[in-house]
Amino acid sequence: MPPKFDPSEVKIITVRVVGGEVGAVASLAPKIGPLGLSPKKIGEDIAKATQDWKGLRVTVQLSIQNRQAAISVVPSAAALIIKALKEPERDRKKVKNVKHSGNLTLDDIIHVAKVMRPRSMAKSMSGTVKEILGTANSVGCTIDGEAPTTIQSRIDSGEIEIDD
To answer: 125 by DSSP, 3-state: which?
Structure first.
């Protein structure tokens, strides 16, 4: 039998959900049921906390202490880029294989890189910007009318300076 659960201990559970939707309670139940929390209530709280990210898949971190759950949204680079494109909300059940063909400025990319910097493996800020540009390339958007790969090579050559 597993050891008895200590209610004052902080448990951190990470879940990937679609923003603004009450997810499958069945996927939450085995994770938070043993901690004495209602999966239905937590699902509704997650939907409320991810309202800004409607229709996008985001990672949510639940910090549980004393049978109270604190919800924090941990967006991925792709989610931040798609949000920066300011595309209209869409129903993910009806619209499939969406092409994100928008255009972002380099300032938008640098802003996303600043948000992602603590989770980046790059040594410098320019490395983080290049990571974000790679994600923008896979999302399918352009930066200042150019392909993200050309901007990456311009950062490598020193034409574009990114200060830390």
So the answer is: helix
